[in-house]
Each structure stands twice: as structure tokens, then as C-alpha cells.
Amino acid sequence: MRISNLTEFEKISLPKLENEMDLYLNSLNSNQILKESMRYSVDAGGKRIRPLLVLISAYSLGKKISKSDYQVAGSLELLHTYSLIHDDLPEMDNDELRRGKPTNHKKFGQAIAVLAGDGLLTTSFEWLSLTDIDNDKKIKLISQLALAAGPQGMVSGQTDDILGESKKYNLEELKHLHAGKTGALLRYACVAGGILSDASDNQLELLRKYGENFGLAFQIYDDLLDVIGDAKSLGKNVHKDEIENKNTYPILLGVQGTKEALVEVLNNTENLLKEMANNDIAIDLFEQLLDYFKVRK
Amino acid sequence: MRISNLTEFEKISLPKLENEMDLYLNSLNSNQILKESMRYSVDAGGKRIRPLLVLISAYSLGKKISKSDYQVAGSLELLHTYSLIHDDLPEMDNDELRRGKPTNHKKFGQAIAVLAGDGLLTTSFEWLSLTDIDNDKKIKLISQLALAAGPQGMVSGQTDDILGESKKYNLEELKHLHAGKTGALLRYACVAGGILSDASDNQLELLRKYGENFGLAFQIYDDLLDVIGDAKSLGKNVHKDEIENKNTYPILLGVQGTKEALVEVLNNTENLLKEMANNDIAIDLFEQLLDYFKVRK
């Protein structure tokens, strides 16, 4: 029977996801400290939103979720974790706290943190390439992941972000930055689920749009939390954006304007959900995912 | 007509390799400074030994080298370049000079250097996954490359190297370090050429062994040059190993013992070449490659 409740879906799928990540990371024949460092950041937890989007996208097109789906989802979480480790480095955002724990370089030193990031990035492609799905699908996933994660996606956005500390972006430039920095992996997550479930081109495009909207909402919400949230419940320092002279929505639009921008994105997404439903995509779980941007406020 | 002279082979193939790398890097839709930084290190040149090994391996099994072979070879050089950028970082080997030019982080700053490395690593998989060869071969190449480059290969060796600065390895441990740090990509290079030319399992194994021997000779030679070479002709600082308390062959075996170890590896490789010749692999170019370890001394 179909699971239509997000909490229940998470309760069933997230332990299986964790288990697959555990198994693969443990199986690596590698330097012990490097493995520990990689595992440290993966085990730090987090919301697992990207792999969850992979699984929900596949499931919502009618796929029965299998071991290889968890592996594809897990490989994305490894890649995301690499990006966090490198983003936190002293030469980048210089963060000391992540998910309530010392960041990787605070725990293992800067050299090992660079290597753990490099290792997780490479392992993501390694795992994906060894997963038991057919090669044509694998190549689609690998090329889409690389395009999303690399200099045509996330790494470009991260560069925009770092270089932006010394200048002010306008709204268009800020959106472009985030479309790369956070948007690209979230779009990939939805598209990957679609590829796994043999989505039509039209369905893939709708999933991509959902990922895009979700990414936009995610970033606006994240910027808001940095202004109005508190460190304890977030597990990381707040008011960092302002201190670091980052380009953010609240700085461009003010807190009220940023809240309005978030509502607008969520309204657009509600319309998109209708279109998804008209194209044989179950929207119940996608809809509940949007509560993320309401409940925690 | 078959090219049997290495210099001639390089003269014909290297410009085509450079051209393919140029084309792909220029085509990237990315932050301009990130692109510049990636190109800076790729354009710094170097001997292009890894892509050359890919091409020679494919060619020596009778393959007519085509555009996609240059792309597979080029994707490996991008990955190698990422590893140099990250290795040179202040938290790693802290090198200021590479191939006679300022290292990436000296030129672009540490944050951009981390991102340029991340970008090149990801681009390597991206390019490989988009190359026009059949998907089964691509998956073989991608998985082999990831295994060679990641925590089960190069990144593990690099971690051994960094952590070894505070302890002394024995010969076995030193060999293990280098089998990862430099050996893994050189083995992959030879195997990749074999995959491209539909080598038999037996031929693949011989190519892998050649890569292994080449890697061993390469590292011993590199360690020797650090002791007996000069900065000007090498384009990088010398005597760094000693200063940084690195584990090296000369420290373990002395200069004379290291020279003898190199001769031994080269003798073993001569025997391997005979076996390769008996298995329908043309060995002329492989043989001339070994001159690299003699001429420059």
C-alpha cells in the first residue's frame, strides 16, 4: 500500500538510506583516519533532504524503492557532505560548528578535511558507477550529477558566493548564485528520482521545476533563519551572513520582503503541484515537504 | 603507418590532446574567475604523462586514436591537475612554485584554489560521462577512475603521505603510500587505454602491471631528483622532502640504494615488456617511455 504520509515515509526509508551509506563507507579499503573523517561528517546527520527528494521523486512516479535507489540517493548525500566540509574550511566560510558538532577541520585538521571532501566527492561517483542499475541509466545519472555539482553548477555558485563577499549582487545575480550553489543539487535530486523511475521527458521537466522551486524556497528560508533563528535550535552559528558581508535576501529585500518572497515561491510551487498531479505524479509527499518552510518558522 | 618513435608520437598526439582540453574547458558555462583558475593550472603544462599512457596503451593494441580517446586521456589530466592544486595548498604541502610558475593558490588565493580543484575533479567525471563512446565502456572507465582517484587510491595515499610527516614508514609502508598516491592514476592510465582498445583480460592485467612499474620508477626517480636535482631545471623547489620530514626512498635507502632500487624496477619492467610483446602489445613506445628515467639524470 502506498505511503502517503511524509513522516512515515521518512521513518521507513531513512534508516535504509543510512544503512546503505554505512555499508559502503565501511567497505572502503582506505587510510583509517581518512575514513573516520569522511564518516564523521556523514554521520553528523542533517535532514537528508537531497536523498529524500531522490526517493520521493522515484516513489511518486510509482516505483517500488529498492536497494539501488537508496544507493543512488546515498551517493548524492556523500557529495553534498563533501561540499559542506569544503565550504566550512577556514579559507572558505571558516565555520567551526555544523549540525551542533565541530566542523570537520576543527576535528581532524585542515589537510584531512580537504582530503575527506575530495574523498567523498570521488566516492560519490565511484558508488554511483558500481550500483546495480543498467548502464544507460547510470550514465545519465553520472553526467547529470557532475553537471549539477561541478563548475557548471554548485562549484560555480560557491565561487560566486565567495567572490561576492567583496561586492553587492542585485536580485538577479543573487538568484543565479543560489541556482548554482544550492539549487543545482536539489534539481538533480528530483531529476535523478525521475530517471530511476523511467519518467517521461515532460515528467522530468516538472520534477526539475519542483527541485528548482524547492531550492529557491530553501535558500530564502535559510537566509531568514540566519537573521531570525537561534544557534541552539539550528546547531550552527547565526548572523554569520551579515558578519561575512554575504549577499542574502534579507539584505536585499529586508526581513518582511524576504518573507513575502518565500510566500510567493511557495504559491508558485502549489500551482506546479497541480500540474504534476495532472501528469501522473503523486503529489502528497511533495506537498508535505513544503511544510518544512512553515513548521520551523 | 604505425608511429614507432615516442617523440614523433608526442608531436602528433599532444597538440590534439591540448586542443580537446581547451575546447572542453572553454565550453564550460561557469564563473569566469573559476574557469581562469582551472585553466591556469591545466595550461601550466607538464609532461602529460598520464594522458600519454592512455593514448600509448590504446595505440599499442592497434587502435586508431580518435577524438574520444583524446577526451578520455584529457579527462585524466584534468583530474591529475586537481590533485596538484590541492596538494600544493598551504595546509597540505604548502608549495609556492609548480612547473616554474606560482601555484594556483599563490595566484588566485586559497579559496579559489580549493574550488578550482573541486571543479577539475568533477569536470573530469562530467567530461568522461559525456564522451562519445558506448555506455558500457564509459561505466568501466568511470568506475576505474573513481577507484583509482578516491579513498581507495590516490586520496588514501595522499593521506598516508600527510600523516607520515610525523612518523617513519618502513619500505613496505612507503611502497603502499606511493601505490596509492602516484601509482593508482598511472595504473588507471594504462588500463583505460586497454579498455578503449578492447583489450583482453590478460592484456589488461599486463597493462596494469606496466602502469604499476612505471609508477614505482616514477616515484623513486622523483624522490631522487628532490635530492640531486636543481630547482631551475625542475621548475619547482628541491630538498622539500627533507625539510618537510617526508618519507622518501633516499631517506630509507640512501642515494646509492635508491639508484639501485630504480635500476631493479627498470629491469623488472624490461622483463614485463617481453611478456607484453608475447601478448600482441607493441612495446616500442612503452620501451622508450622508460628513457624518461635515464635521460634526465
UniProtKB/TrEMBL annotation, chains A, B:
Catalytic activity line of the entry: isopentenyl diphosphate + (2E)-geranyl diphosphate = (2E,6E)-farnesyl diphosphate + diphosphate
Record InterPro entries: Isoprenoid_synthase_dom_sf, Polyprenyl_synt, Polyprenyl_synt_CS, Prenyl_diphosphate_synthase
CDD domains: Trans_IPPS_HT (cd00685)
Listed GO CC annotations: cytoplasm
Enzyme Commission code(s) on record: 2.5.1.10
Domain of life according to the entry: Bacteria
Cofactor: Mg(2+)
Magnesium found in the keyword field: yes
Record-level Gene Ontology MF annotations: (2E,6E)-farnesyl diphosphate synthase activity; metal ion binding
Keyword Glycosyltransferase belongs to the record: no
Pfam families given in the database record: polyprenyl_synt
Any one Gene Ontology BP term: terpenoid biosynthetic process
Keywords from the named record: Isoprene biosynthesis, Magnesium, Metal-binding, Transferase
Protein family according to the UniProt entry: Belongs to the FPP/GGPP synthase family.
Protein name listed in UniProt: Farnesyl diphosphate synthase
